[in-house]
Each structure stands twice: as C-alpha cells, then as structure tokens.
C-alpha cells in the first residue's frame, strides 16, 4: 500500500459487545497516527467530538440510524475521499457501525470508495464473550455477520469461568468462521499495529501544531486521573497492550511468480488478517515497477511505483492471530520463483487488483 492510501477499518458487533471501548483504546494508543473516525452518535464515545474531529470535516456523525441505511454509496465515497485527502494527513479511518448495522452493506460501501487514497482495512467483529450464547440464540442472524469477519475480537474473556470456557467459545466461533483470526481479549485491548502501519517518524518542534489523538487523550487523562479507574483498583489496558498476534515474513532479492502471489493474496492462510509488502516481478515491462501489495480477508489492493532509491527485491509480511507461522513462511517461500515467460496471463492475476491514481 502506498503511503497515501489510508486503510478503512469497519468495527461491527452487537450492542454492548465493546465496539466503542475498542475504538477508544485504539485512539488512546494511536502512537502518533492521525485517525479519522466515522460514528453513528458522538454521545456514545467517551471523548469530546472536537477531539475526534481534530479539524473541520474530520468526523462524520450519523445520528439517524445505521450508516448503511442513511448514506448512499456515492455520498459515502465522497465523504471518505474528503476525509483522506492528502492535505488532511489521515493515516487510517475507523468506522464504528451501529450495533444493528448490516456489515455486508458497509463492506460494499467501503469497496465502492476504492481510490488512490482509500484502502479496505477489514471487518473487525467484536463479540461479547460473557453473553455470546444468549445473544446468538436470540439473534441467529449475527452468525452471518461473524462468518464474513476478517478479524473476530472475542471481548470480555475475563468474565468467563477460566481457560476451558474461553477455548470452548473460540471453538464455537471457529465453527462459524473457519479462517479469520480470533483474538481473545479483556477490555477490548487490541494492539493498533494489528490494524495499521506504525506511524511515520514525525518532526517535533516547540511551535503550535495539532496534537494526535493519543497525545490529546493522554493530556485528558492527566486532567481527569480517576476517569479510567476500575472497581478493583487496576487500570485495565491503559499501560499495556495485548499483542496477541503472530507474523511471518519473507525478505529476498528474488522475484515472485505473479500468479502464485495473487492466489496467496486472495486465499490467505487461516488466521491471517493482513498481508503487505513490495514485490519484484521478473517479466519484460515489469522489472522496473515496484508492486506494493496489501490484502485483508482476501480483498486485494496493488499499487505500482518506482524502485528509485531502492534495491529491487521482494519483502512480504503476513500478520494474524492463531497463525501457523512455520506453514505460512513455507507458503511465502513458494512464491519466490521466476515468472514463466510463456504464462502470458499470469501477470494479469496480479494487475487486475491494480489501483490507479485519481
């Protein structure tokens, strides 16, 4: 993914599962990233609307129902394009969906907004571990939502009766979604680096500048130190992150077979959430192109750039939870092979995902 393309991550889940808690946790641990936020109702978020927006037009509030019902695809695309315009410096966008929103419609809307500045960042579905059985029994349609999730955050596991109960719930979720990473957490404490790139090193100066979310919220914490205290006297998730994910990487000067790479991106290993990197394709007309790839849940994006200032080669990383790192590394190694010059359609499997600048 190019630096100008901001991942758009959809946070979904039933009412009370912990979506807002997850959103606030990510903002609080933004690491200097500038994050755009689209929400249904400012009142549901424990931070001031001004701090969320950071600047005029930085946040869209949809107060009349779920986003997929109140905003058509064209308006939504325009909103995302404006939010992620290069001048705004947005690194990523989080959408907190209504507890009754239809995830399929939201995914279609994000994909319809595909441009040089917007990349699909996945559907993150939050599950209330403590009330899962009752919720799925009363609302069986939620199983359809779970089935299409790119990442399942199994929240509130601290309220379950031990590890056996946690593993039993994970097994139930795995029966509905056999490939998505399942991340068991308490207090929705998920490391943001599972979703986003590390923030670029920013120049610091003593002059006036706009603070990032984590800096603003940290200042707010100092002003209101008791706001986040828990009844047991502990601070759950403020000073620590649950990494909970694994990775497998490939770094080589060798080229990749574009057909094999496309298949790998479209059908990633079980437990994979994100695949990213830059690859070399050893074919006439393509050796001078640095292809930057990103895949989330089988949705693939490819950007074409130049090797100028860089040594051509292949660098790929797979990030997930419950990932078989050894098997994934073996699969990565199998991608490295000179492209067959007689396979005239092989490169098309990769370039069909190419996003042109707009």
Describe the structure.
The chain has 358 residues and is an alpha/beta fold. Helix content is 28%, strand content 22%. It contains 12 helices and 12 strands. The strands form 2 sheets. It has a 7-stranded parallel sheet, with helices on both faces. It has a 5-stranded antiparallel sheet with strand order 8-12-9-10-11. Strand 6, helix 8 and strand 7 form a beta-alpha-beta unit. Helix 4 (73-83) packs across helix 5 (103-112).
Main beta-sheet strand count, sense and barrel state: 7 strands, parallel
Q: Estimate the strand proportion.
A: 15-25%
How many extended strands? 12
Structural class: alpha/beta
Order of the strands making up the biggest sheet: 3-2-4-1-5-6-7
User: What portion of residues is helical?
Assistant: 25-40%
Mean pLDDT: 79
C-alpha end-to-end distance: 15 Å
Calculate Rg over CA atoms: 21 Å
Which series of helices and strands comes N to C?
Answer: EHEHEHHEHEHHEHEHEHEEEEHH
Concise overview:
The protein is α/β, with parallel strands linked by helices and 358 residues long. 28% of the residues lie in helices and 22% in strands.
Strands, helices and their partners?
Layout: E1 6-13, H1 19-28, E2 35-39, H2 49-53, E3 59-61, H3 67-70, H4 73-83, E4 92-96, H5 103-112, E5 118-128, H6 132-138, H7 142-147, E6 151-155, H8 163-176, E7 182-184, H9 213-223, E8 246-252, H10 258-266, E9 272-279, E10 289-296, E11 299-306, E12 314-320, H11 325-333, H12 346-351
Parallel strand pairs: 1-4, 1-5, 2-3, 2-4, 5-6, 6-7
Antiparallel strand pairs: 8-12, 9-10, 9-12, 10-11
């Amino acid at each position: 993914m190019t630096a100008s393309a901001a991942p758009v991550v959809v946070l979904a889940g039933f009412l009370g599962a912990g979506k807002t808690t997850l959103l606030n946790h990510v903002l609080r641990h933004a690491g200097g990233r500038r994050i755009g936020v689209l929400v249904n109702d400012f009142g549901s978020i424990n931070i001031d609307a001004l701090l969320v927006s950071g600047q005029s037009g930085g946040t869209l509030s949809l107060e009349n129902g779920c986003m997929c019902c109140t905003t058509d695809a064209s308006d939504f695309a325009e909103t995302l394009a404006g939010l992620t315009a290069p001048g705004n410096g947005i690194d990523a966008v989080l959408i907190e969906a209504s507890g009754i929103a239809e995830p399929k419609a939201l995914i279609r809307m994000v994909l319809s907004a595909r441009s040089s500045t917007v990349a699909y960042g996945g559907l993150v579905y939050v599950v209330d571990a403590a009330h899962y059985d009752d919720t799925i029994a009363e609302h069986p349609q939620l199983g359809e939502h779970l089935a299409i999730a790119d990442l399942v955050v199994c929240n509130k596991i601290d309220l379950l009766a031990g590890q056996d109960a946690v593993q039993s719930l994970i097994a139930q979720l795995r029966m509905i979604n056999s490939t998505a990473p399942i991340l068991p957490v308490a207090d929705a404490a998920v490391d943001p680096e599972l979703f986003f790139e590390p923030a670029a090193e920013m120049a610091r100066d003593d002059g006036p500048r706009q603070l990032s979310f984590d800096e603003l919220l940290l200042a707010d914490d100092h002003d209101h130190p008791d706001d986040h205290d828990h009844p047991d006297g502990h601070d759950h998730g403020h000073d620590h992150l649950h990494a909970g994910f694994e990775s497998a990487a490939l770094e080589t000067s060798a080229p990749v077979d574009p057909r094999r790479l496309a298949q790998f991106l479209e059908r990633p290993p079980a437990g994979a959430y994100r695949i990213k990197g830059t690859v070399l394709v050893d074919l006439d007309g393509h050796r001078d192109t640095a292809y930057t790839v990103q895949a989330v849940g089988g949705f693939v994006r490819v950007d074409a750039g130049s090797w100028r200032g860089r040594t051509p080669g292949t660098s790929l990383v797979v990030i997930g939870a419950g990932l078989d790192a050894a098997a994934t590394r073996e699969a990565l190694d199998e991608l490295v092979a000179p492209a067959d010059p007689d396979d005239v359609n092989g490169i098309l499997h990769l370039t069909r995902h190419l996003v042109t600048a707009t």
